[in-house]
Amino acid sequence: MRGFLWENGKITVTDLGSLGGDCFDPHAINAKGEIVGWAQTGTQKTHAFLWRHGALTDLGALGGDWSVAWDINDRGQIVGHVAWLPYRTEGFLWEDGRVTRLTSPKGEDTVAFAINDRGQAVGSAGEDSNSVAMLWEKGVGTRLNDLIYAAPGWNITLASDINNRGWIAAAGERNRETHAVLLIPDTDWWALFY
């Protein structure tokens, strides 16, 4: 399977190439047409990739056993996660060949899913049943639950996207029910809407 780009409403198809393996999974595209995701190499390893200006770049395993790129902003900053077997993950920020580890205050596993043009990244930390949503700014991670103003009983478990205004689309639990929530920044706090 190979990735393709469909441009300007035309049925012209651009083959994104291959890292030599059987699977190719693009995840995000920015306004410049740069695409990120993951692909298998010829040795069946999973690596994050960047497709830019017609060239496919293997970002490598980034120090782990495999890696996945989830999002790219218009500045070319890429977020995703690295994994080590048997299964430990850590979010990353890739910028111009430099990798910044996106960790949590308590040292749990992390995954970064989205990044805005201000360089704010969001994702989660912890295990599935005990995960918490995270916000990273300049590489420093903060639990979103610590930033929510006057929202007793809520546990924000996953942040899946952030726009350039800093609004965060997330999932949260309250009274054992999961809800889609919107977090909107207001000076030092985020207001929660559900």
Explained architecture:
The chain is mostly beta strands. The protein has one domain: TolB, C-terminal domain (Neuraminidase), CATH 2.120.10. Helices cover 0% and strands 59% of the residues. It contains no helices and 18 strands. It has a four-stranded antiparallel sheet, with no helix packed on it. A four-stranded antiparallel sheet has the order 7-8-9-10, with no helix packed on it. Strands 11-12-13-14 form a four-stranded antiparallel sheet, with no helix packed on it. A hairpin with a 2-residue loop joins strand 5 and strand 6. It is globular and about 50 Å long. The model has no long low-confidence stretch (mean pLDDT 89).
Q: What key phrases describe this protein's structure?
A:
globular, four-stranded antiparallel beta sheet, 59% strand, Neuraminidase, 194 residues, mainly beta
Give the helices and strands, then pairings.
Blueprint: E1 4-6, E2 13-15, E3 20-29, E4 35-41, E5 46-52, E6 55-60, E7 66-72, E8 78-84, E9 88-95, E10 98-102, E11 110-115, E12 121-125, E13 132-137, E14 140-143, E15 155-162, E16 168-174, E17 177-186, E18 189-193
Antiparallel strand pairs: 1-2, 3-4, 4-5, 5-6, 7-8, 8-9, 9-10, 11-12, 12-13, 13-14, 15-16, 16-17, 17-18
